[in-house]
């Protein structure tokens, strides 16, 4: 290395110099494995409850949050219903209400869930090294409502009427940015966008960052607010949505033979990931350990999963490998199961590839989307919260609306009624358009 005068200074010898790439990887993996990651806080905003306790109570009760959409007139649309986060008041989650008004609804939902998760964890920013606290909260679509509203102003009014806040309100990474600003968290900050796998990827990569030693705490998850004219018409014209307008509460029916598409939902799910010793030192309540994370690609189709489920299976197997668990040590799978005719069967194939005979002889699988609808980029965060609470309370939330289980789904899907069970480890799946697969694995501690 030369300075500006051309004088050469030798680099210090690297302790890893001369090692083969495989040995280098093995050594760094060993160093990473000493850092355990736990979950110390949960925050959710969902169609079945705008806080952790209400959300969990309604899931266990098998209560649907699907109803006719109130945000706009759906008369001309093929689908008239969705899972709205009714009663959510954003102003209580921002220090300055002007900031709330200058945030798209997805960011408002993200801030609400983040604030709840931080409060639940007992974190005090004044007592933390904020350079080692990060934020990774993503969104599959971002500020769709902001884009629609301002595009209408552009077309019907004048370019000067478009809000100067349009771009910062619309971009998917702005939620992570605003959460960090709210608390002054200066650590790793980014937003992963992988459609419906967004939350799991954000949470999983946050886990990796903490294990690698680059942060001690990360606020992680996802948020989505796409129940809008563009969102409803876009998914509707793909023929992806249920059109069961006569009975919205029965429209999301994963694994049922009469399922006809998914139900759009909105909300946010955010958890606090924390290095185990850091959490113990401050006396934090620990829900569970985040022990494994897997990710893969289908490389197959824009919106359809691989029919044999092999991509999702590789993802689940990676999570098991990281957690150093055998398949039959998993008590519960919170399935991605969106209630589409093709997707639910493909995931069944993936589960059977991963779990073998145990898939149909002991494993419990349920789909909480039957109650919340599909929260897209927020789904993984919300469903991880359900998995964590299943471990805490030793109860599996049901898959509601299973009136005639599809014979191709030969799994125990905990139909219609919650079930008490010994839950020591749970796996939560999320799969996104583009063939993105992600699974996170939590264990009792």
TrEMBL record:
Gene Ontology biological-process annotations: fatty acid biosynthetic process
The Ketosynthase family 3 (KS3) domain, residue ranges: 34-444
Organism the protein comes from: Roseimicrobium gellanilyticum
Keyword Amino-acid biosynthesis on entry: no
Annotated Pfam families: ketoacyl-synt (PF00109), Ketoacyl-synt_C (PF02801)
Molecular function (Gene Ontology), one example: 3-oxoacyl-[acyl-carrier-protein] synthase activity
Family recorded in the similarity comment: Belongs to the thiolase-like superfamily. Beta-ketoacyl-ACP synthases family.
Gene3D superfamilies: 3.40.47.10
The protein's Enzyme Commission number: 2.3.1.179
Protein name: 3-oxoacyl-[acyl-carrier-protein] synthase 2
Catalytic reactions on record: (9Z)-hexadecenoyl-[ACP] + malonyl-[ACP] + H(+) = 3-oxo-(11Z)-octadecenoyl-[ACP] + holo-[ACP] + CO2; a fatty acyl-[ACP] + malonyl-[ACP] + H(+) = a 3-oxoacyl-[ACP] + holo-[ACP] + CO2
UniProt GO cellular component terms: cytosol
Record's function text: Involved in the type II fatty acid elongation cycle. Catalyzes the elongation of a wide range of acyl-ACP by the addition of two carbons from malonyl-ACP to an acyl acceptor. Can efficiently catalyze the conversion of palmitoleoyl-ACP (cis-hexadec-9-enoyl-ACP) to cis-vaccenoyl-ACP (cis-octadec-11-enoyl-ACP), an essential step in the thermal regulation of fatty acid composition.
Enzyme class, first EC level, given as a word: transferase
SUPFAM superfamilies linked: Thiolase-like
Active site (UniProt): 196
Taxonomy, superkingdom: Bacteria
Keywords: Acyltransferase, Fatty acid biosynthesis, Fatty acid metabolism, Lipid biosynthesis, Lipid metabolism, Transferase
